[in-house]
């Protein structure tokens, strides 16, 4: 009986792990796509307003927010969705 319980537990664990992994992938991909679109829309504004800002920890986004009035319309739109 114990080997059967162990086997059932292992199969259930593997199944739940694969479901959790698939769910994580689905949530991660749209964020990756949004960031790619944001990068394309704001590339010129980053060069113009934030070229000396060190990347990481949200510094580029903070810089763009500080220069919001001077951003291209496409970049403003993407910033509103972040």
TrEMBL record:
Signal peptide location: 1-22
One GO location term (cellular component): membrane
Pfam families assigned to the protein according to its UniProt record, in alphabetical order: Cys_rich_FGFR
Keywords, comma-separated and alphabetical: Signal
Keyword Signal among record annotations: yes
Highest taxon of source: Bacteria
Entries under InterPro entries matching the protein: Cys-rich_GLG1_repeat
Protein name as catalogued: Cysteine rich repeat-containing protein
Organism field: Bdellovibrio bacteriovorus
